Amino acid sequence: MATTGAQPDGDSIRFTPDDPAQWDLITGTRVKRNASGAAQLRLDAIDALETHYGTPRTHQPLDLAHAAAAELLDWLGFSNVVRGQDETVTSSSPDTVAGFILTRSADLYGRCIAFVGRGAPRQDDGSSFFVDVDALRTTANHHLIQRGLPTRPTTGHYFPISVTSSPQ
Fold this sequence. Notes:
By secondary structure, this protein is an alpha+beta fold. The protein has one domain (12-163). 15% of the residues lie in helices and 26% in strands. It has three helices and eight strands. The chain has helices at 62-76, 133-136, 140-146; strands spanning 12-15, 39-43, 79-83, 89-93, 99-106, 112-118, 129-130, 157-163. It has a six-stranded mixed sheet, with no helix packed on it. The chain is globular, with a radius of gyration of 15 Å.
């Protein structure tokens, strides 16, 4: 996962898999990726307030949006996150963190819809995996729900894709 140069909020973050070809395991809408293979993730079944949507930002409480974004980034292992006026992250410590996703689809905008985890997955990259309650409890999605920030998640079959380092 990476933050610098992106606008992560409480329900989205940039992710680069160890093997960008694994994006092709996702059927249906193609995952939109940049030149480095990174894609924007949309956390499955999570809907947090936006940190960078519209001007002026009077339509959503920005303090709650920032709380959700900070909680996601902190849980993933980022600290000292500095944002510019447009909400783009200019620096964080560390620059990237290892993690994995459980996914099977992308939305109409090409954002990968996923459950997001820290560290290494419990199963092989690209293998089919049923997201049960125990697996769900290891995700950022579940963590954010425990904190009362977004809505409840659902479960299903997903393909794990891990990352040990994340180029920008």
